[in-house]
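Go through this one:
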Amino acid sequence: MRTMLAHADLSRYAGQFVWLEMNFDKPENHDFFSRFEASATPTFYVINAEGKLLSDQPGAMSEEELRTFLDRGISLAQKPQSSADAALQRADALLSTKSPDAAAAYEEVLRLAPSDWPSRPLAQYSLVTALQLQEQYQRCAETAAREAAVMKHDNTFASTVVAGMWCLVQSDTKAPWRTAAADKLEPLAKQALASPETVRDERNELYRTLMFLASSRNDKVQAASLEDKWLKELDAVKPADDEERSAVDIARVEAISIYGDPERVLPALRSSELSMPHNYNASLRVAQMEKAAKHYDATIAACDRGLSRNPGVLGRSWLLQTKADALKQKGQSGEARGALEQALESAQQIPSQQSRENNVKRIKQAMAAL
């Protein structure tokens, strides 16, 4: 997304927005994320001068989608243009606080909105997102299949399918409704992959969820085929900068973490670490794949390199958790516990409540297992 933002033509918005980038890792951003909890990375917000949230949208966007999002923010800053606009603003406010009423609010938006309303695709996507956040996995998957089936095959369509696919992945594999929902969503996921308007972040999520579903069915042939297609796409990317290089490497790790041989991606990850000597995330990705390949000494060394590169509290927590697991595999339980204690100390300082709680829970479980 940063690469797109760096090259996007947003000159027509000059003087209308104050641009602000917030980093999860920085303690000074704790108050912001306590008030505006992000359900995904990235998440975009339009906030007025009084600090009121006018609109937010999780997930990656194309340049065209970003302009539409900003135009809508400008419109809402002036006044709602219709009952549907006003209803969408209320629904967005509920979603930003993860209110259980958000899904019903988006359903009301779609009831009020005419079929050609410009913000209808956003409302469709946001409804599916709200159901996902509420862990209503059946409604989420079935709603995504229904709404996406009538959407233009742009990036919002892809985002809607991705949210529905994640609800399939997160649901009980034995749920009786799951097969029928998968039969509708998987062809839509493949259509989204075939669309030239689907941005790289969403392509990665589509491959990822399709691989998860194949693995859950023990379909190794399909999982291997998807892994091969995904990695070939990633290998064909010529990164314009370190941000894009990092995004490609993250996707490589995600692919192999689901299915495949970590040795396949380690050369590319090691090369990236050398190319980005101050980037702790590059060291973390090497460590994760070294651990998957059972190279435990190399894992510990990569974690130590990352820790020396001034990570924030979230990155430090991840590096120490990875190091602790490698130490445990080597039979060094005392050293592993020490690394987990340091990881817990860092995790408790993570600004984002959801990320903080998830990391603390995972570390305490690892400590109990020791």
Remarks:
- The longest strand covers residues 53-58.
- The chain has a mean pLDDT of 91.
- The domain at 218-311 is CATH 1.25.40 (Serine Threonine Protein Phosphatase 5, Tetratricopeptide repeat).
- Residues 204 and 251 are 6 Å apart (CA to CA).
